Every structure is written in C-alpha cells, then in structure tokens.
C-alpha cells in the first residue's frame, strides 16, 4: 500500500510522502484563492467544488477556511460552516445534512503516536462523523475517531473526545452530557 492508501485505511503512514505533499500543496493553493474572495464572488463555487469535490453544491463555507486535502470532507445538503474553521482531513470527515458549524470549530482526524521517535516518522488518521441536524458551537474541537449522532448539540468551546449519542447535548472540556437551557 502507498502512503495515501495507508492514511485512508487508518494505518500508520509516512507523513513526509511526496505524493501526499503534492496533494496538500494543491489544497493550499486552492485555499489561498478561496480565502481571498467572498461568498458572492463568481469564482467561489468553482473553487469550492475543486477543493471539496465530495460536498453538495449548496453547502456554504464562510472564508477563511482551512483543511489538509479537501477530498476527504463530505458535507450534506444545507450544511453551513462559519468563519475560521479548520478540518484536518487525513481520514474522512462526514458531515450530514442541515448541520450548522459555528466559527473557529476545529475537526481533527490526525492522531500522533505517543512515542517521540515513532512520531517523527508516522501519523495515524481516524474518521470523524457528524450526523444530520447537528449544531456544533463556536470554538468546539472534535478529536479523531469521534462520531456525533444526529440531532446533537455541541456547546461552544467543547472538546469532544468521545462519541455523542443521537440527540445528545454536550459541553465542557472534556465534553460531558448537560441538561440544555431553553
């Protein structure tokens, strides 16, 4: 298996692989273009489609936006991503329909080995899944391998380290279930 195949399979892979480097460079160039225009610019949809080929055409991402590859991000219909979001997409990030993501949300799929010598050579990626009709509050951080069930709410600033069941409401660091206020 090559490095990309290992990355997508959740196996340790060489983070310094030249092919992956070229793919990150392509995404960086597209991000630079995207992050210098507005949603209303004619080139916005064209750049978004090239950067994120697996998203629906009507999803809305407010620049600036940052990711590693783009092709590992899947966003359903009615998806809204506010300013300054970071999605480190070494593994798939699957975002359902009608998901609202607040400003400065960070979604990570990269996990680094604990051993410092191993960390110099390899990385491991775990997918993140966000179900339909979720609301992710501003500044939340979602860690590798987490699944957030449909209709869930993640409080602003939460650090989500574990799966959230359908309809769950979590907040805090680490995120814990809470009783929502009306």
What do you see in this structure?
The model has no long low-confidence stretch (mean pLDDT 95). Strands 2-5-8-13-16-18-19 form a seven-stranded mixed β-sheet, with no helix packed on it. A five-stranded parallel β-sheet has the order 3-6-9-14-17. The protein is an alpha/beta fold. The chain is 20% helix and 26% strand. The longest helix has 17 residues, at 18-34.
Instruction: Tell me the number of helical segments per DSSP (H or I, 4 or more residues long).
Output: 4
**What is the terminal separation in angstroms?**
51 Å
Structural class: alpha/beta
Q: What sequence of helices (H) and strands (E) makes up the elements?
A: HEHHEEEEEEEEEHEEEEEEEEE
Oligomeric assembly: single chain
Number of strands: 19
Largest sheet: 7 strands, mixed
| Low-confidence parts | none
Q: What is the beta-strand fraction?
A: 25-35%
- Main sheet strand line-up: 2-5-8-13-16-18-19
The share of residues in helices is 10-25%
Shape: globular
Average of pLDDT: 95
Computed over alpha carbons, the radius of gyration is 16 Å
Which SSEs are present, and which pair or pack?
Blueprint: H1 3-9, E1 13-14, H2 18-34, H3 43-51, E2 60-61, E3 65-67, E4 73-75, E5 80-81, E6 85-88, E7 93-95, E8 100-101, E9 106-108, E10 110-111, H4 116-119, E11 122-125, E12 128-130, E13 135-136, E14 141-142, E15 147-148, E16 153-154, E17 159-160, E18 169-171, E19 176-177
Parallel strand pairs: 2-5, 3-6, 4-7, 5-8, 6-9, 7-12, 8-13, 9-14, 12-15, 13-16, 14-17, 16-18
Antiparallel strand pairs: 1-11, 10-11, 18-19
């Amino acid at each position: 298996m090559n490095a990309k195949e290992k990355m997508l399979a959740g196996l340790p892979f060489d983070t310094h692989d030249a092919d992956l480097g070229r793919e990150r460079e392509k995404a960086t160039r597209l991000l630079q273009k995207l992050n210098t225009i507005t949603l209303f610019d004619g080139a916005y949809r064209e750049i978004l489609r090239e950067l994120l080929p697996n998203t629906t055409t009507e999803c809305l991402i407010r620049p600036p936006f940052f990711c590693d590859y783009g092709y590992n991000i899947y966003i359903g219909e009615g998806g809204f991503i506010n300013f300054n979001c970071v999605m480190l997409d070494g593994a798939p990030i699957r975002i359902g329909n009608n998901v609202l993501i607040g400003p400065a949300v960070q979604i990570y799929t990269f996990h680094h080995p604990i051993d410092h010598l191993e960390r110099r050579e390899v990385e491991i990626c775990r997918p993140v899944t966000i179900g339909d009709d979720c609301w992710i509050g501003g500044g939340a951080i979602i860690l590798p391998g987490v699944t957030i069930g449909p209709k869930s709410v993640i409080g602003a600033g939460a650090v989500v380290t574990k799966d959230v069941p359908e309809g769950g409401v979590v907040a805090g660091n680490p995120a814990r279930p809470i009783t929502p206020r009306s």
